[in-house]
Design brief:
By secondary structure, this protein is α/β, with parallel strands linked by helices. The chain is built from 16 helices and 16 strands.
């Protein structure tokens, strides 16, 4: 085996590049660029060329390269990007799920000691080593499902000590992971029950005590806040996010999940994305569509809580950019299977295959402030996956039961 970094992959029955599709607005399937009998040339972690396999093979004649032959009929698409997860956690909230199914609301469960605080208690009690081990197991599941970039939030620590522990655990996983890991600080998840002070005092504690440690250890350049009636107010969220913006951090927001207001904060503060949006109405939809903020649909939370889906169809038709993520967490979205969730969302919101694939690839990448992935073309990361089928439409048709038979991240096969 040669040590060359140049590799040719293929032939693939169909290659869905997703190139030249707009970042915002609705998409039709006939806009998808499909190459038949296709190949990919990668030089190290980057794509060097995409096109007809035989022509690419001839193009490399006389050069030092390796070929990874694909024998079976397959469709290759960009690796999926799960841009909103909470997979750094310990504990189980099956009791919460049972209670919701019995008619008790998410807010009532939280008030009774369940909800986020239950996960905080378990995660605080976990060692960093245990959190790393649990995340690594969950990342193995992500790989099996074609995820090549995952965002992981803190937010179950809710103190300087435990938020740092979570972010350090995420950093350790990032360093050794086969896929790309993007850490986000969600210390403003809820105001912890054991904090002696009001909302502003807690947010100031994060800004004055936690943020300097995060910067010193370079643990993340992203911060999130849960803007909601039972979490942080609109005024408090604006104060917090504007302070973080001045410090140079990227922003994202949990907004419009149970009450509106979060999306307005996101747009006004220049957040990369606003995530949830299950209760967003016409005003919120139009505002998001006119902005550069990505609308992040989290169908797993709708399935877990039993509420409406993000109005993805209306957002796209209004001109917004819609990404789709799993929200994998121990409480409201325990499934963790992005493709299943996205397929179900597509059915209820009448989304085209192009819109769903874009929402899990280059539009999700933009929500993480990346432009180097999510599309199969020259210069992009060689993050891709193949499905054992001859028609790309089968990927959603099987609603997640069709799993990728091969996954590559940075040109390296990891499945």
């Amino acid at each position: 085996m040669s040590n060359t970094q140049i590799k040719l992959y293929g032939p693939f029955t169909q290659l869905v590049s997703l190139k030249n599709l707009p970042l915002k607005g609705s998409l039709k399937d006939d806009q998808i660029d499909i190459i038949k009998n296709a190949g990919i040339i990668a030089h190290g972690s980057k794509i060097q060329a995409v096109g007809d396999f035989e022509k690419l093979n001839a193009q490399l004649k006389g050069k030092n390269f390796e070929t990874e032959y694909i024998q079976e009929p397959t469709v290759v698409v960009p690796g999926f990007i799960d841009a909103h997860t909470h997979i750094c956690f310990d504990g189980n909230r099956a009791a919460d799920f049972a209670s919701r199914n019995a008619g008790i609301s998410y807010q009532e469960i939280a008030a009774a000691g369940g909800g986020i605080w239950s996960s905080v208690t378990h995660t605080r009690n976990a060692t960093k080593k245990r959190l790393v081990s649990l995340m690594n197991k969950r990342i193995q599941q992500l790989i099996l499902n074609g995820i090549t970039t995952v965002e992981i939030k803190s937010g179950y620590g809710l103190s300087v000590e435990h938020e740092i522990k979570m972010l350090q655990a995420i950093a350790e996983v990032k360093k050794k992971s086969k896929i790309n890991v993007v850490p986000t600080c969600l210390a403003a998840h809820i105001k912890p029950k054991d904090f002696d002070g009001d909302e502003r005092a807690y947010l100031d504690m994060i800004l004055n005590d936690l943020v300097p440690l995060v910067k010193n250890e370079d643990l993340t350049n992203r911060f999130d806040i849960f803007t909601e009636e039972n979490a942080f107010s609109i005024e408090g969220s604006k104060y917090y996010l504007k302070a973080l913006k001045q410090k140079g951090f990227d922003l994202t927001i949990h907004g419009d999940q149970f009450s509106v207001g979060g999306s307005k904060v996101a747009v006004e503060c220049g957040a990369l994305s606003v995530d949830h949006l299950e209760v967003s109405g016409k005003t919120e939809i139009e505002m998001i569509a006119k902005s550069e903020t990505i609308a992040m649909a989290l169908p797993g939370a709708s399935l877990g809580i039993g509420c409406d889906f993000t109005p993805a169809r209306k957002l796209l038709d209004a001109g917004a950019s819609v990404a789709i993520a799993s929200d994998w967490n121990p409480g409201s979205a325990p499934m963790g299977y992005l493709l299943n969730q996205a397929s179900i969302l597509a059915t209820f919101e009448k989304l085209s295959t192009a819109e769903v694939l874009a929402g899990m690839t280059f539009r999700a990448a933009k929500a993480l402030n990346y432009t180097d992935r999510g599309v199969l073309e020259k210069g992009k990361r060689a993050d891709f996956q193949m499905f054992p089928t001859q028609d790309y439409r089968d990927i959603l048709y099987h609603q997640g039961s069709l799993r990728p038979s091969g996954v590559w991240c940075g040109g390296k096969r990891i499945r």
